[in-house]
Every structure is written in structure tokens, then in C-alpha cells.
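Each lists chain and fold; for instance:
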Amino acid sequence: MARRPLPRILSKDSAQIARTQLARSRELARTAADSATDVLHPLITVSRGLRRLASAGRRRWADTPKDKRGPLLFLVASVILAVSLVPYGPLLAVITMLAAAAWQGRERTPPDSEGPDESRAERLQSLYEALVPYFSSAEDPAPLYAHGGEWEKALTAHEFDDAGRVGHLVIRYPAYFPDGEPDARARIEQLLTAKAGRGREYRFAWDEEGNQLTVTVLPPLPADIPAQHFVTAPGETVLGFTDPSEVQRTLPLSYGEEQIDVPPVVWRTGVRSTEPHLLAMGHPGCGTSTLLRSIALQALQYGDALIVDGGGTGEYACLTGRDGVLAVECALPGALASLEWAAQETERRLIAINLARQAGDPPPPDARRPLWIMLDRPSVFAHLAAAEGRKDPQTLLQAPLRHGRAANVTVVVAEELESADALSDAVRQHTRARVVLGPVAPRQAEAVLGAPPHTTPLGYVPPGRGYARLGSGPVHRLQVPRTPDPYDDATSDADRQAVLELLPPRATAVEAEPTEPAERTELTKPTDLTKPTVDAAPVTAEATG
């Protein structure tokens, strides 16, 4: 019987045929996938757009404050109800939603990764060349900065504004640069300010650990926000407004016909305040009187104010005779008498609060009501007192300054920078909240605030523009709300009306009844005639003298 040969399954021809069939299958699958992608491309685009819209909605809901989520839900429900009641409303809503999803889900081209154009590259190269003498050393074997070197390695990030000037810059510098020395930093900041463009305000952030310097151009603060009622709690005073990145709080304000949210610089006073007193300094016309008027209008909502004006310009005449305004003194005798009363009032409050605590009772209301003592240019009174042989009015501020926090007494002093030497030691030591206004040099701002500002000064600043520092906190840019003197002819009608609306009403004077006619009236009353003669005789003799 003959053997039947085995089939050659794994022959060379069969293996080649198998590989060919596998390649055809892969090509067929790839073609089918491409065809399915082309057919389902609109559905994929809409799905991607819906996913992006949902993500945007979740981010919007997370960023919305909790107190505003209820009105937002009510608004969305109202829109859905209105759309459902409109003829063909649901259909139009679905079409609009699909169109928005298709627009959001479209394939976006990546941004151009090429470098800056020729003019911007020349500007960055000039910045690099200007930094070479400061960031290079002859002993460096591989210098990061060298004449004719490449700026791309040193200037790692850069942005330009619409005018073609530098708006943001990240600079690398070698580790041996003394970035801990203020003079070395000041030279670099002054150079970058000149090369990047004058007339703007820059913020310099030094990263000493990473050897990087971040330069950011700050937008100007709004200088035309009028005086108005601020949404604050008792004991909170709005000094002005600052950058959004500096504080974690915003205030709703009326800005013309719009409502905006502006980050404020809030100064807290009272028993639990760590900075119960304020010192504001600046050049003439910089806005220190405007700051004092703004503080006074806010303080009169919850307390009383005593104003001593050493300038004698009558800028606080609008507060004379108002409810809560105890006095507005412009002369030396009145200032001495008012401040002496304030010192005695501080001692009286301390005694009353101490007795109440010993008895286990709350402090009396007259000791809890805030008392504000505001002095504008006390150095003028110091010179007048020295000429007339009287005591300096600032010596009467020792008790309010030292014990004012416990007695709910707050002292606000405004002085010119040229007269800073005339301030007493008590004023310098106990005013830990500081404000400096106007175009001041960095060293002057550091002398007042205790720390240098992290921004470059400008040649021209509007009134009320400066810096503020509360205690040992950071230095903030500050813009005081526009609070001019309403009785000044140069004040606009809108600003005048805004300040007049904030003023308390006029205090009504109560006339004392005459003593002698009252006693005679008592004698003519019918009830007095029924009294025995022995009781009426002493009164009659007393009345007739």
C-alpha cells in the first residue's frame, strides 16, 4: 500500500500569500476607519463641542460665589421656561446648542511656534546686551551673558503689547549675581525700566532660589472712582483700591453707569486691630486731604470725629456742624482745647471700661462708640506753639495713641514729607498703618513704609495715587477714591454731588430754657398754690433775690 504525502502547509509560497492577505486586511481596515471618520466627523465635532461646553459650565459654576449661585439658577430656569413657551422654542434651542457645540468642537490650529519678528527680536537683543555688564564675569568659563551672545537662553519668556513694547519678561541670571543686595537689584530695575519703555509701572519679582527675574507691566489703577458708600463691616475703612492679584476681596462699586468689582485696601480698626492708627504722608497736592475726607465720611457712619486742620485752607468746612462731627478746629487755641479733651476722654473711657469689666458688665455704649481724631499738618501748630511758648499739640496725642485701641479711639495724621522731622516720637512709633502718596523716590517710600515698594515710580501720578502698608504686611499700590472738597469751585458737579450725598445731616442746636422765667412759671401753677406757705416761702425769697 502506497503512502500519501503530507500537505506542505508552511511552504514559502503559502507564507507569502498569508502576509499579503494580512496587509490587504490592514489596508481595508484603515480605509474603513477613515471612511467612518469622514462620515461621523460632524458627530465627533459636536460631541467634542458639547464636552467643552460642559467643562466650561462646570468651571463657571465653581468660580461663582456661593451667594450668587441662587440668582444664577433662577436666571437659567427663567430662560428655559421662556424658551419652552415660545413657538418652536425648543427646536431653535436645540439648533443653537448644536451650532455652538460645532463651533466649540472644531479643530483649532496650534499657535504659531515661531519666534518674534525682526523688530521685537532687535528689542530683546538690545535688552540682552544692556544686561551683559551686570550679569557677566571674566572668571565664568561658560558665561550666560556675553557680547554678541544669544538672547534666547537668557530671556526665557517674553510678551509684547499692541504697541510693540515689552509687556512681560522672564530673565535668567547667573547664580553669582548678588540678588540679595538692594543696590544691585535697584541697578537692574532702573536699567530695565529705561530699556523696556519709560512712562509705565513695572513689578519686579526676584526668585533667588531659581535665579530668575520676572518683569511685569502693571496696568494703571482707575483714578476716577467717585466717593460712595462701600459695602464694609463696622471697623473696616477702605483706604483705596489696588491690583487684583494683591488682595482676595472685591467690592461692588458704581463706576459711571456700570457696576464693577474692584479690589480694595481695607484698614481694620477697633479693639482687635493690630494697626489702630494711621499716618499718611506726601507732597503738597498729592491727595492726603482727600484721603482724610474719605476716611471721615466712612467713620461718621458708626462713630464721632474730631478734626484739626493745621493747613488752614478750610478743606473740611463741609463737615462743620454735621451729626457726629464734634469739632473742626483751624486755630491753635481750639486745637489745644480739643486735643486736651480727647486725651481726657480717652482716660475716661479706659476707666469706664475697666470698671465694667471688674463688675462683669459689658462696656457702656459711650465707651464703645468709635472716636476718630484726625490731624492734617500738625507741624504747623508745632511751629506756632513754639513761637507762642505753648505746648506742642502732638504731646496731647500720647494717651490716644498708646491706649486708643482699648478705648475705641483712632488717630489719623496727615503730614507733608518736607515736614516729617516735626512729627513727634509717639506719632512715629504708634502709627503702624502707613500711606505715602504722590511721586516719591523709592528711598522716601521705604523710609515712610518701612519696606521698599516692588514697583517702579512714575514721573507723573494722579492725585491720591501712592502706596499703602498695614503693619508688617506687603506694600500695595493704592488709589484713593475721588473725594474732593464740595465747596471748592474747581470741583465738578458730579463729584460735588457725590460727596454731599455722603455727608451726615446738619446737627440741630437745642436752646437751653432760661432759669428765671421757669421758676416764676412754677409759682403761678395752680398746683403750687395749694402748697403750704412754709414750702413756698423759701422759693419766693430765692427767686426775688
